[in-house]
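Usage example:
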Amino acid sequence: MPEAAKRSDDVPGTAPNLVRPAVVNDDAVQTALAQHMSRISGSRTEIKCFGRKSSGFSWITYAFAARSALGGDRKLILRVGPPSGLFAPYSVLPQVHALQALAGSGVPVPALVSSAQDGAEIGLPFFICEHIEGDVPAPWAASEIDPDHKRAIARQFIEILASLHRIDPSATPFASLQQGGERAEVSAIAGWRASLARPTARYYPLLDWGGRWLHDNCPQPPCRTIVHGDYRIGNFIEHRGRIAAILDWELTHLGDPHEDLAWAMMPTFNARSRKLYGVLERAEVIDLYQRASGIAVSDRSLAFYEAYALYQAAAIQMCAVRAFEVDRFNDMRLAVMASQMPSIVRAFERALEAAA
Amino acid sequence: MSVSFERLIDGVIDALQSHVVPNSNDDFVRGQVFSAIYALNGLKLAADWKAGPLLEQVRLQDDTFAAVRRLADGMIHPEIPTTPRVQGDTSDATAIEALRNDGDRQLGQLLLWASGEDARAADRDAATEIERLLRRAICDQLKIELATTPKSMLQQIAGGEREGSAAQG
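Running the assembly step on the lines above writes:
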């Protein structure tokens, strides 16, 4: 049983001075992390094998080992919300709520160790969780992995999604995410529309018009569930034929379960295949999901959320453009994401035609 | 491209200076990188996005505005610019890009209007035809951009992989 996760302000000790750095300096993060780990463990802790992992587009991920006088090395992961990242300003709350609420459930997640929205010693929102052994499959291209192995993983992937959607959100901290009187799924659309309305280098007429259509035609959900928000191949760790952890809960919210299903089946995340992980037919995915979740899938709602998935993908690309162009966040990967906009917007227009 | 030319060049230079140079111990490689940075600084002073594809988009927008003006005759509609907006040969890419961006905003306003209640109430058939025309024209405009977009390298970009051939333009 992992030790209970600690919020920084739960732990007595010298309150850190909260000065938010303008850029993320890895050496400074490592020094601050040692102070933080020492404070929450009550024992002097050294940080070993500290290194940035390159994969994320949003939160900055570091792997490290915490070595304290009380015990041996403990392999951990630190995730920091950069001041001008893709979805800045960052909140740790969705991820913290997810890791806390889902511990011990049918949805495998890394154990939460510590978190601080105010930044504590590090000065930026962060959380620390346990390191999980395994591999993260690449969603972008066809791989050499055995198709039978992929089928087994794809089936687990859908069964875990069904487990997530079976959880009653009212009994979890997610209930506090619901704000105001608007339907949660409509609020999510409104959030992306507001994001696209921010000043950026480009205005896309089809996104403006399509965003209004989505807002006005959002279907009633069969039930309101916890929605992962970025449930796709590439956002889990696989170890010895089992999915060991579902990752990246930053877009988690309450909404329509069709949203996760549509997002997972986007060809972009399945090496451009219409099959999940390149192996599981759409009908098989739907059948498996319905049986495992007890939620009836509506063709109309799924078509709506397939269009919404492309709208959201476009909005995320524009967040990347904004982070690079307006907020001067120096990551060239964000700049080149913009080159995908014409194809995404055209696909969105076709998906809207199918959903209307 | 949705980012500005100058910012893109600045970003490439920063990536080379901050991430490539400090991680290269080979003098020849460092010489190559500094040469590339020098060349990029030169491009920043002397180059811009190609004017041709931008001009093609502006002309397509102008054709669309003219067609919408005809179909919307007698209806109360958002402002439609007088066309053609570009006279003769123009090569100022920044000015053409600004015209293209203004045109996109005006097309967006017309599309929202044509698919809205007021236009439908005034003339349902005309509004439907205008909506279809605008959607088709905006997609055609995106095709022009796609023609100048290199093949995706998302796998290599996201994973930083060495393997795999570089995508061709």
